[in-house]
Every structure is written in C-alpha cells, then in structure tokens.
Amino acid sequence: MAGGTKRLPRAVREQQMLDAAVEVFSENGFHNTSMDAIAARAQISKPMLYLYYGSKDELFAACISREGQRFVEALTPAGDPGLTPRDQLRVALESFLGFVDAHRNSWMVLYRQAMSQQAFAGQVRSSRDRLIELTAHLLESSTRDPEPGTDFVIMAVALVGAGEAVADRIAGGEIDVEKAADLLENLAWRGLAGKKRTDQHG
Amino acid sequence: MAGGTKRLPRAVREQQMLDAAVEVFSENGFHNTSMDAIAARAQISKPMLYLYYGSKDELFAACISREGQRFVEALTPAGDPGLTPRDQLRVALESFLGFVDAHRNSWMVLYRQAMSQQAFAGQVRSSRDRLIELTAHLLESSTRDPEPGTDFVIMAVALVGAGEAVADRIAGGEIDVEKAADLLENLAWRGLAGKKRTDQHG
DNA sequence: CCCCCTCCTTACTCTAGAGTAAGGAGGGGG
DNA sequence: CCCCCTCCTTACTCTAGAGTAAGGAGGGGG
C-alpha cells in the first residue's frame, strides 16, 4: 500500500466519505465540487468513492438521504403527545432552528443545494413536505375555531418559508436560535406587528 | 451567409440572446445549460454569444441584471406616497406575487438559480435586500406603537421568506395571486391563526 | 501454511462543453 | 464604385473532471 491510509471496514469508510462529501458539497455546491476534491478531503483515493457509491449523483443522493434523515430525527421531540399543540409547535421551531444552527456547515447549504438541483429536488422536497405537513397539523390543532375554508397547508408553507429565511440568518450568525424562535412563534400567533410573548429588552 | 439568419442590429440581437438564455437557464439551471443550447434557442451561432457577452458567466450575470431590474421596477407602484403604509405593503405584496405569476418561467427559477450559485448570490441578494428593506420600512411605518427593541429587518426577512415560499406555489400553479396576497397580508398583521380580513367563502 | 475476500492504489481513458481562429457577406459612407 | 465596419458562420482546440482498468497487500478461515 502506497499512501499512509489504514485499512478500515467499509461501513466506517462510507461514513467518512459522506462526511467529506457533505463538507465539500456544502462549501462549493454540487457542480463546483469534483470527485477528486471529495476524495482528497476524505483522504482516500477516488476509485474508492466509485466502488462504494457508484457515481457522483449517487454519492450526492446518499448525502441528502443521510442528512435528511438526521433532520427528520431532530424534529421528533416535537411529536411528544404530552405537549399541547402550541408547545409542540414551539418545540418544532426550536428543533428546526437548533438543527440549522448546529449543522449550518452541512445541512443548510445542502438543503439549498439539493433544492435547486432539480434532479434531487424531489428527494429534499419529501423531507420538507413532511415538515410542512407536521406544521399544518399543529396549526390546525392549535386553532380554536377554524373557519371552514382555511387552508392550513398553505399557511404552513408560509410559516416554513419564513422559518427557512430566518434560518439562513441563523446560519449566517446574524441572529440566535431563541430570538428567531420567538419571532416565528409570534408571527404564527399574532402577526409580525403583534406584541412579543416574551418581552424583556435591555 | 449559410444559415437563414437575418442580419440584425446588435441591441436587438442582444435582447434575443438574453431572452433565450433566461429561458434555457430557468429550465435547466446554470450548470446544466450549455452555450450551445442557448445559441440554438436564440437561433444564432455560439461565437455571437461570446462576441456580445464574453463568457457564460457574463451572459448569466447579464440575465440576472436585466431580470433583477425588471423585478425592482415591478415593485415601484408600492412606493406611491399617496397610499397608507399598509396599502403600500398590500400593493408590494401583489406586485411581487404578480410578477412571479407573470414571469414564473423566467424569474422564479433564475432567482432560485442565481441565489444558490454563490458566484452570483451577491448580485441577487442586492435586489432581494432592497425588497427586505422596503418591507421593513413599511412594517415600521404601519406599526402604531413599536416596542423599543423591535427588529423590523428580521421581521421583513421572515415575511419575505414566507412570500418566496408562497410564490413557489404560485409558480407551481397551486394557488392564485389574490389568495396568496390575502394570506401574507393577514400573516403580517394578525398571524396565521388570525381571522381573515376578506372573509367570503363558498 | 495458503487461499481468497476486502480494502486500497496508481495511472490511465474519454467526453461534454467552454472558448477561439479564420474567414465571408451585406450595405452605408465617401 | 469600393472601402470598411458590423454581423455572422463553420470548424476547430483544449481542459476539467467523471469514470475505469489493472493490479497489489493485509489478514481471517480452512
């Protein structure tokens, strides 16, 4: 063996590759990332990438898949049936924003990446749609007397969209999770112009 | 001359090229669009593209620039000082969503495209930031007694984010402009769960 | 002890597609 | 009438980077 590379079991190597791929993809985007760059980051030779993942597309898909799963897992606390719907929404908000905060490097850009990739958009949209459905459900449960024609799904779309926009600012370090969660919660229940629920300044 | 191509003045040809480029870029994304494809769509030979625009990047930048300008222009009616801030916001919302509805093919994808291109993200973000500033300003003007610590910019970020998410659904034909504008207006002033302002069903 | 499976590498091939070289024709101005 | 500017084309070149061929070494199981 030429390189200083150690023999490792496939499962371990695969995760290392995925780690490297997520990093480089998120830094440079799908098209501006070469398999050579990923191989270099993972400290492995390129043919290994092809041996384990087959192609660049499949490797990227594997990244999306793993990160998407983690994302969904991060949101499970919000499913706690012991909480009121409103608190569930609060927890969902914090989980979502907390996830972005903790995984800015890996997830947020991947999310934006994959979303605008159209070969992979479908794959991401499914994670995202689950989030929207969850949100719609919580909104519906928390609304005391909904009007007959109310479309909770489109409301959820709006709220999740707002969440994504705010999440970008979190990833950019311009605002912290708590402040963002407060803002979005108030947005949902009272509108932007409404009074804040938690109210301490200075 | 071999092709059936007619001699046209540069200014005219440039616009045709831009039209073609916007179409193809929005259909396939920046990286999945070849200069050959654009040339074919514009019914012109590839060297003309290079003669007038220099490179693929510059051509794309020219697209962003033209569409961005049109986008900003579409929003100017909202600046009418004869309107109340709240009506200005309503007009801005309708202008924005109306623009997306009318230019789904060209703009929305370009917007998403360029935004996630990082070589061009800055260029788009500037149009977008103008939109956010405008929105923040309108929110601030329409709020009767704002709390001292209120961050109108981040509110505007959330609202614009919601608008973009809803705009995607408009582009997808899942909802119409009026309904979306109603939703977003109510979102801004009353929250998702609040009663609709306009209130007719079935 | 040796077989063979898995892990791993160096050193290629091949093509899409960005960008260019070289030259031709219309047509207005002198 | 002819010069020359602008518009336009065919037919290339060149490279980044996806993907592959061929082979080598560790080490557990028989």
TrEMBL record, chains A, B:
<keyword id="KW-0804">Transcription</keyword>
<dbReference type="InterPro" id="IPR036271">
    <property type="entry name" value="Tet_transcr_reg_TetR-rel_C_sf"/>
</dbReference>
<feature type="domain" description="HTH tetR-type">
    <location>
        <begin position="11"/>
        <end position="71"/>
    </location>
</feature>
<feature type="DNA-binding region" description="H-T-H motif">
    <location>
        <begin position="34"/>
        <end position="53"/>
    </location>
</feature>
<dbReference type="GO" id="GO:0000976">
    <property type="term" value="F:transcription cis-regulatory region binding"/>
</dbReference>
<keyword id="KW-0238">DNA-binding</keyword>
<dbReference type="InterPro" id="IPR001647">
    <property type="entry name" value="HTH_TetR"/>
</dbReference>
<dbReference type="InterPro" id="IPR009057">
    <property type="entry name" value="Homeodomain-like_sf"/>
</dbReference>
<dbReference type="GO" id="GO:0003700">
    <property type="term" value="F:DNA-binding transcription factor activity"/>
</dbReference>
<dbReference type="Pfam" id="PF00440">
    <property type="entry name" value="TetR_N"/>
</dbReference>
<dbReference type="InterPro" id="IPR050109">
    <property type="entry name" value="HTH-type_TetR-like_transc_reg"/>
</dbReference>
<dbReference type="Pfam" id="PF21943">
    <property type="entry name" value="TetR_C_46"/>
</dbReference>
<dbReference type="InterPro" id="IPR054129">
    <property type="entry name" value="DesT_TetR_C"/>
</dbReference>
<protein>
    <submittedName>
        <fullName>TetR family transcriptional regulator</fullName>
    </submittedName>
</protein>
<keyword id="KW-0805">Transcription regulation</keyword>
<dbReference type="GO" id="GO:0045892">
    <property type="term" value="P:negative regulation of DNA-templated transcription"/>
</dbReference>
